[in-house]
Amino acid sequence: MHIDKSQIIEVLRSKGLHDRADWVDRELPEVADTSKNSSLLRMLQIDPTAIGRTGS
Predict the structure, then answer these.
(1) CB 11 within 8 A of CB 51
(2) pTM: predicted TM-score of the whole model, two decimal places
(3) Residues 21, 9: contact at Cβ < 8 Å?
(4) How far is Cα 54 from Cα 22, in angstroms, rounded to an integer?
(5) HEC sequence for 18-54
């Protein structure tokens, strides 16, 4: 599955995690592969199934 980086950033900002959102903006590609980045998403407490999808 793939998700837009902007959706990850939006979730982080909504939690008040602006520094982490800025870091994600610099480090991740525009479309993040949830399998490849699963550890990072877990660390950020991002549930990819809870936000929109852009592919499978």
Answers:
(1) yes
(2) 0.83
(3) yes
(4) 21
(5) HHHHHHHHHHCCCEEECCCCHHHHHHCCCCHHHCCCC
Residues 6 or more apart in contact with residue 35 via CB below 8 angstroms: 1
pLDDT at 54: 45
| pLDDT by 10-residue block (mean), the chain, 56 residues | 94 96 95 92 90 53
Q: Exposure of 27 by Cβ count < 10 A (0-12 exposed, 13-18 middle, 19+ buried)?
A: exposed
Cα 14 to chain center, whole Å? 12
Q: Is 13 helix (H, G, I), strand (E, B) or coil?
A: helix
